[in-house]
Specification:
Elements lengths: L3 E4 L2 E4 L4 E7 L9 E6 L6 E6 L6 E3 L7 E6 L4 E6 L8 E7 L14 E2 L3 E6 L1
Parallel strand pairs: 2-11
Antiparallel strand pairs: 1-3, 3-8, 4-5, 4-9, 5-6, 7-8, 9-10, 9-11
């Protein structure tokens, strides 16, 4: 069983930055592709970014490309999401997720374990 705990959310003005962290339990972190997703108010959960097991491969949603950076520290069992140039439309609950296997896809259904989420609110 994998447990994921997100932290780092909060209230920030548009144009500001936040860094989200996701701490994972268990011995399988380094063999697990990881993803960040978000759920805006009243909308479905959507893909934000994903990273390969060793961290050499990343993929981003078009809406965050160039502004967000996903990274991981396998020694610390932690995955990060650096969010810069935040916009009001980035407001959402942000979730990290892990999966078994090799690939790091964009689909919610492809991930096996989820954190409880952390709220990010961007004010005008």
């Amino acid at each position: 069983q994998v447990q994921l705990v997100e932290s780092g959310g909060g209230l920030v003005q548009a144009g500001g930055s936040l860094r989200l962290s996701c701490a994972a339990s268990g011995r399988t972190f380094s063999s697990s592709p990881m993803g960040w997703f978000r759920q805006p108010p009243g909308k479905e959960r959507e893909f934000v970014a994903a990273i390969s097991r060793a961290g050499g491969g990343t993929v981003y949603a078009d809406s965050v490309k160039g502004r967000f950076t996903i990274s991981r520290d396998n020694a610390e069992n932690t995955v990060y999401l650096q969010m810069d140039s935040l916009k009001v439309e980035d407001t959402a609950v942000y979730y990290c997720a892990s999966r078994r296997g090799l690939y790091y896809p964009r689909m919610v259904a492809e991930y096996d374990y989820w954190g409880q989420g952390t709220q990010v609110t961007v004010s005008p």
